[in-house]
Design brief:
11 strands, 7 helices, globular, Rossmann fold, 9-stranded mixed beta sheet, alpha/beta, 245 residues
Length: 245
C-alpha cells in the first residue's frame, strides 16, 4: 500500500481523500495571481510543522522575495521565520541561463538542464529532504524550444525526483486562467497529479476555484471547488463531506 502525504492545506486533503500518494510529482497549474507559489509554499510549511524537511527551489524569483511575499500574505503564520531558521524549510535559488532560442543551441539547453538537475539532487541528498517545490518549471519551456526534447527532460526530472523518494509540487503557468479555456499540454500527462487553480469573472470581482484534474492510482474529488487565500493560509471549500484523515 502506498502511503499518503498530507498537504496540510485546509480542504485540499479532503479533495485528495487524505493526501497525495507518497513519491508523487504533482503539477500545480494556474494563471498569474491564482496563488500557485503561495499554495506550494504552504505545502512545505505545513509539512515542516509535521517534521518533514522540504526545499523550495525558486527558478523565477529571488528566494528572499518569495519569503517576504508569503509572509505578507500569510500574516497569521507568525512562525515562518522560525521554521526556516530551524532548517525544516529551505529556500534554494536555481537560475538556468535561458538563451536556447533555436535548435543550434540544444547542446546548451541540455547542459543547463543537467546542471540544474544535479544541483537539485545534491541539495535533496544533503538535507535528506522528502518534500520539494519547484517554482516554476515554465522556465524550462522557455529554455527548451524543441517540444520532444522538452517532454523528454520533464520525464527525466519526474523520474529523478521519484527515485530520490520526494513528494513534489511543481508550478506552471496556465495559458488562460479560465476553466473553459484550459488546454492540456502533452507534458501534463507525464505527471502523477494535476491540481488547477482557476480565476473567473471580472478583475474587480474574481472568483477563485480549484480542481483536482488527476491523481494517478488514487481516488480524488471531481468537483470544482471555491477557495480563498486568507492570512492563515489557503482555505479550500471541499464539496464532499469526507471523514478527516
Amino acid at each position: 500500500m502506498v502511503g499518503r502525504v498530507k498537504t496540510g492545506i485546509s480542504g485540499i486533503d479532503k479533495m485528495l481523500y487524505g493526501g497525495v500518494p507518497e513519491k508523487s510529482q504533482v503539477l500545480i497549474t494556474g494563471g498569474p495571481g491564482a496563488g500557485k507559489t503561495m499554495f506550494s509554499f504552504e505545502y512545505l510549511y505545513r509539512n515542516a510543522k509535521m517534521g518533514n524537511t522540504g526545499i523550495f527551489f525558486a527558478f523565477e524569483e529571488d528566494p528572499d522575495r518569495v519569503l517576504e511575499n508569503v509572509k505578507s500574505a500569510f500574516t497569521e503564520l507568525t512562525d515562518i521565520d522560525d521554521v526556516v531558521r530551524d532548517g525544516k524549510l529551505v529556500f534554494d535559488a536555481e537560475t538556468p541561463i535561458i538563451n536556447a532560442l533555436d535548435a543550434s543551441e540544444i547542446g546548451h539547453s541540455s547542459y543547463e538542464f543537467g546542471k540544474v538537475m544535479t544541483n537539485i539532487e545534491s541539495k535533496i541528498r544533503e538535507l535528506n529532504a522528502t518534500r520539494v517545490v519547484i517554482d516554476s518549471i515554465s522556465v524550462f519551456d522557455i529554455m527548451i524550444r524543441d517540444a520532444a526534447l522538452y517532454r523528454k527532460y520533464m520525464l527525466a526530472l519526474i523520474t529523478n525526483l521519484r527515485r530520490l523518494g520526494v513528494t513534489s509540487l511543481m508550478t506552471i503557468e496556465m495559458e488562460s486562467p479560465d476553466r473553459d479555456k484550459l488546454i492540456f499540454k502533452p507534458e501534463y500527462f507525464i505527471f502523477d497529479g494535476i491540481i488547477a487553480l482557476y480565476q473567473t469573472g471580472e478583475e474587480t470581482k474574481r472568483l477563485l476555484a480549484s480542481e483536482v484534474l488527476k491523481i494517478r492510482g488514487s481516488r480524488h474529488s471531481f468537483v470544482t471547488t471555491p477557495y480563498d487565500i486568507t492570512p492563515s493560509g489557503f482555505r479550500v471549500f471541499a464539496a464532499e463531506d469526507i471523514t478527516p484523515y
